[in-house]
């Protein structure tokens, strides 16, 4: 069935970028402000779901050619590896550290290994949410 | 002096926003059908929320010296999405056959939808 969804589709195209930007912002703000991997991942999944609502599932598969089950697995792997990395340096499992670095554009930046763990959480949340929604939304 | 001006401006904006939101809820209670209600619910609430957010944005920017990009983004986001939500609700209501108010006099979309249904029927038969 062909329906006329010009308004919804046009607005979705614009708004998805706002939501994705905000989700990345939330992900990086998580260390010192409210935010973090969980809510950032949910927000990214929400942007993809908005695309799936405005267009259809085939289009989403074409635009985001990612197997979300693998995303979930990679996220868990990253979280596990940050834990194992602390064992290599002979400190207890999941010990985290941070340091100050002079980056070219950002200047003095505090980089923490907890961000890597958060990246794992982010990918796992995106993967789980999108797997659930896409497999429920499937027609056959 | 600056604080007095800023505070009264912010106060006016936030009271205006609250008043508009209250007006829109009265519209939701008083108006007779879905379309008139969505007219009341989308327009005045959007403006109400925009003025409340603008008030908060100005307050933090001028008194605390903290420019909140999140509030600015929220203003843009609500301004873009709220009318579209109203449009989609009205459209879904019309397509599922919710009747107009009994005293409505004009319904231009009805003829077009009937034409569409007829051409679909013809396509199925031919």
Pick out its properties.
heterodimer, A: mainly alpha, two-stranded antiparallel sheet, about 65% helix, B: about 130 residues
Please explain how this structure is put together.
The complex is a heterodimer of chains A (140) and B (126). Chain A is built from five helices and two strands, in the order H-H-H-H-E-E-H. Chain A is mainly α. The model of chain A has no long low-confidence stretch (mean pLDDT 88). Chain A has helices spanning 6-29, 37-54, 57-63, 68-88, 114-137, and strands spanning 98-103, 107-112. Chain A is 67% helix and 9% strand. Chain A has one domain (6-138). In chain A, strand 1 (98-103) and strand 2 (107-112) form a beta hairpin. Chain A has a two-stranded antiparallel sheet with strand order 1-2. Chain B is an all-alpha fold. Chain B contains four helices and no strands. In chain B, helix 1 (2-30) runs antiparallel to helix 2 (34-63) and helix 2 runs antiparallel to helix 3. The mean pLDDT of chain B is 90. Classes of the chains: A mainly alpha (140), B mainly alpha (126). At the A-B interface, helix 1 of A face helix 3 of B.
